[in-house]
Amino acid sequence: MSTQQRARLREAPLPRTGAELGGLLDFVREEIAPYSTGNGHPAFFAWVNSPPAPAGIIAELLASAVNATCGMGENALMDVERGTVRMLADLAGLPDSTGGVLTSGGSMANLLALATARTWFLTGRGSGDGPTYDRDHARLTLYYSAQAHMSVTKAAACIGLPAHRLRAVPADEHDRLDSAALRAAVTADLDAGLLPFCTVTTLGTTATGAVDPLTEVTDLCRRTGMWHHADGAWGGLGAAVPALAPLYRGVGDVDSLTVDPHKTLSVPVGCGALLVPDPEHLHTAFAHRASYLTAGEPDALPWLSHATIELTRPGTRALALWATLRHLGRAGVTTLIEHYLTLADQLRDKITAQPRLELLAGGPWPVACFRITHPGGAADDLHARVARRVQVAGRAYLATVAVNDRTVLRACLCNYRTTTDDLDLLIREVLHAADADGPPRSSRTSGRHTADDH
Ligand SMILES: *Cc1c(COP(=O)(O)O)cnc(C)c1O
Question: For residue 260, which atom of ligand 1 is closest to its CA?
């Protein structure tokens, strides 16, 4: 897309008179659709950006025509939303009591989770307000693995935690939060008079797809009075997949779980969720009352605006998620994720079999981080250049990520249309792009990785 075309979109003024809506179709066909991120394409392997499921596209159009707000009052779409929350909880292996809300995505769900944890912790100590609030809030300390998504620290900043109260606990050689290091950090902070209030685990780390140890963290949280939030924006539904389920033992005991149907299930973008086994905690944090907003019936269900920051909320997320889940069924969800796992295994095998490439990390969630073997060890800028060349050539698309503090290539599987042929295409494109840097030699160095997010 040319710079001029983009500038035109940004700078075109609003005409004085209106135009026929018919022109909108041409506008989208000519100016918008050809210049999307490209994540509808089966050879798009960057980030965790799935293509939209047709059921979700249709449902969004229908829900926006109904245009009910899923915040207050009562309407069928609010019950649809409550129903989808229950379905997600069931897929994720959370208890029947679970409630929650749909969100714009994983970042917003993580923010709601940390705000809920903070309110739960302080009210539990009797310091929800007054002088004890000031004293205790300043000592709140948050734990997460060094592999956690950056939305966790962003959420911490939003609820008023300063950087010196955040603990990025080291991950082990498989990129999983090191629970011994977590225990040591919590003990040291307790000894120093601080207030450890929450640990965030990640189910499916963004860089390499690792799943943090759940039961060890829950045990520590129970013993020390912390909230356990699991960020499963990508991998929150692993319990529904037999091959992954052993890693999810104990997931039903977390205090809250983020899932992102717009990543894992191809619901059109704008659909995340926060699931809370005891939804009362969510209501304690977010049910603020106002005289102009009162439920009609005394026995009305809690409004969804009482579980989140938003008041007027779209029904599009709920119906798009409902339609996608109903279309897939439980078996379809499992098969979809298994499809990604199978392709990722194939991709990792192909990388391992190719002498000019070296697999560095990836799994159990479907991702491969790899480097090009190159004279003198491949430099960071080589991988940035190769990714750029692949992107510009336009036949496949992948991104880079930091692994072991080095920039390497990252390919992620989250497109239901991707096939083995697309994997071969990706490898051909990467090798072709690397050829532009001169003849290869097989010099291999290996090391452990510390990946980063994006
Ligand atoms: C993508 C991601 C997020 C953020 O979710 P958005 O929907 O992009 O806001 C949070 N945590 C993890 C682990 C993620 O992969």
Answer: 7
